[in-house]
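To whoever is covering the structure queue this week,

Two jobs came back overnight. Logging them here so there's a record in the thread.

Job A:
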Amino acid sequence: MNIVCLDLEGVLVPEIWIAFSEATKIPELKKTTRDEPDYAKLMQYRIDILKEHGLGLKEIQDVIATIDPLPGAKEFLDELRSLTQVIIISDTFTQFASPLMKKLGWPTIFCNSLVVSDTGEVTGIKMRVENSKYTTVKALQSIGYDTIASGDSYNDLAMIKASKAGFLFKSTDKIKADNPELPAFETYDELLNAIKKKLD
C-alpha cells in the first residue's frame, strides 16, 4: 500500500509569504523554509513583522485569494491521485489552505493552525505535532503504508529521507548540493514518472 506525501508551497502553489511580501512591499517577509531551517524561529520572525506593520490574518487571506496553483500542478495532482493515495503535508495553516485546496480540487491536507486574536492579529502558531512532516510519515508507515515523499525545503528533508522513495522538487542549489543522494526534479512530468516507478 503506497501513499504519496507532498509539500504544498513551492511544489504545488507559490510561496504564500513571498506573495504577501510582494503585495505589501515588505522584503523581510520573503524569507521562507528554504532560507531558515528552524520553523518556529521563522514564524516568530514573521509574526513580529506583521505586528510591527499592523497587518493581520485578513490582509494575508486577501493576498491568498489571488494566488493560483503553479502551472501544471492541478493536472499533475489529478493524475497522481488517479494512481494512488496522496496527502499534502504542509507547515502552512488551516486559515491559509482552504482557497488553495479548492483550486487544486480539494486534496487532503494535513497542516497547522494560527492563533488569532479577536481583532484578527496573528499572535502565535499551534503545530499539529512536533516535526509534523516526519512524524506524519512515520505514523502512516506504522499503519501499513509505504510512503513516497517530495518537497523543496529544509523542513521536507526528514519526511523525504524517512520514505521508501523521496525526491526534491524545484529545490535550491544549496539543498540539492547538500543532499546529493536525493533525486532532484524540475518538472511535474519528471516527478510523476519517478513516482510511477516506485509504485508497486
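Job B:
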Amino acid sequence: MKLFDLTGKVAIVTGGNGGIGLGMAGGLAAAGAQVVLSGRNQAKGDKAARDLGHGAIFVAADVTRKAECAALVEAVMERCGRIDILVNNAGIAVRKAPQDLSEAEWHRVLDTNLTSAFLLCQLVYPHMVAGGGGKVINIGSVMSLFAASHTAPYAASKGAIMQLTKATAAAWAKDGIQCNCILPGWIDTDLTVAAREQVPGLNEMILARTSAGRWGTPDDLAGIAVFLASHASDFVTGAAIPCDGGYMARG
C-alpha cells in the first residue's frame, strides 16, 4: 500500500546495530527507506548494515555526547541529503536497588536513554522542517508505566521519554512532524538475556504475564515502526503505543 511506502525517505536508527533497533531498521528498509544505523561499535555496525542490505549504512556515534550527535546528523545530511525519520532507540540499563546506584550510573542511563533523544530531536528538527515534515519515533518501554525494584534509572528515563514525545508532538505538529512513542514489552535481545541472568524468576514471570505466552522478537517491532514512519500515521502524534504481546493488558 502506498500509505506505508517509504521509498525516498531517509531514516536514522540509533542503537540500530542490534536488537530492537535492527528489527525496526529491517522493517523500514523493506518498506523502501534509506536506513542509517548508528551505534558505538564500528565493526558490529558495519556487519549489521551489510546483513540488512537495501543500501543501509552505518555511522558510528556515542549519542551521549552532543558533538557526536551533531556529527551523526551532519554525516547523514552529507551522504543522504535529507532526514525524514528519526528512531531514538539507543538504550542501556543498570539493574540495582536504588540505594546501591552510583551517581555516575544514574547519569549514564539517563544520558543514553533520554538526553540523547532530546539532543537528536533538536538537531534533526530544522532538516525535517526544511523537508516539509518528518517522523520521530521514540522507544519507551512497558517500564514507562510500570517499574521494579531494580529499574530506577531505566524506568525514570523511559517514563520521561514518553513525556518528551508528547511535548515535541505538541510543539511540532504545526511543522508537519509527528512524534510518537513505542512501548515494547519483554523482547528477546542481548539486553534482556542479561536481565534474565541477573533477576531470578524473571523468565517465568514474563511468560506468565504476557498474554501471547512468549517473549517478543526484534522483528515484532518492524510493523509498528513502518506505520509510525509512514503517511499511514499522519494524524497520529503524541501517542504511546504498546507492542508487548498483551503484557500490560493483564492489569
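Note for Job B: The chain has a mean pLDDT of 95.

Please reply-all if you pick these up so we don't duplicate work.
Q.
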